[in-house]
Amino acid sequence: PAKPIQIKVVLLGDAAVGKSSLVLRFVNDEFQENKEPTIGAAFLTQKVRLDDTVLKLDLWDTAGQERFHSLAPMYYRNAQAAVVVYDITRAQSLDRAKSWIKELQRQAKPNIVIALVGNKLDLVADQENEEAEDADADADADADADADTDAEHTTATEGKERQVQTSTARAYAEESGLLFLETSAKTGEGVVETFTEIAKKLDLN
Ligand code: GTP
Ligand code: MG
């Protein structure tokens, strides 16, 4: 069999959005509720098969804490692909993702494949997405009243709400030429798909 093609992939995004958790799910099919922050960066590899081709992904999982920002160029330089992660329950993390994407578009390889990934989908699994906004005002008022009542009975970890609508992030990704997926490192939803979509979009010649 032919030697696998080696591909350098960098993960970028705000602290605690779930970069390391996505990698851990993809590589080991595991999840940890209290994953410690990454210091500097971590390196793991995983293979993906595309028809008759095997790609070996070299995954550079960077640290999202601001004090590590200056290290990032070492990891995205020469990368053929980037996974830029935000947390769908934290709007500010999408702003951070957008600024990483601008930095990549200025400083990384010109043909780099970028995937924008909205993680922690499991936290909003039973919540409505954008279509809910079409509901009439009375229904909204009733829903708000219910939500207020419910809030008194939920704990801090349960009280997460979606702050980034799928349609908003997808529109941004489309106009910027990025792949777009929503994922859960906790359930595994969308995780393998993220790396397979990247592999498909790479120009391997
Ligand atoms: P830095 O290394 O500091 O940049 O953070 P990170 O982006 O690598 O985040 P990490 O994977 O360490 O996850 C942060 C926290 O979010 C951990 O407590 C994870 O268990 C949790 N987490 C990550 N992904 C998910 C997810 O999909 N769903 C839920 N519910 N929690 C998640
Ligand atoms: Mg990490």
From TrEMBL:
**Chain segments annotated as coiled-coil in the UniProt record:** none
For region Disordered, the annotated ranges are 128-168
Q: Residue spans with biased composition (Basic and acidic residues)?
A: 150-163
Record keywords, A-Z: Nucleotide-binding
Acidic residues bias spans = 128-149
Instruction: Please identify the protein, giving its name as recorded.
Output: Vacuolar protein sorting-associated protein 21
- The protein's organism comes out as Coemansia umbellata
Q: What broad taxonomic lineage does this protein's source fall under?
A: Eukaryota, Fungi, Fungi incertae sedis, Zoopagomycota, Kickxellomycotina
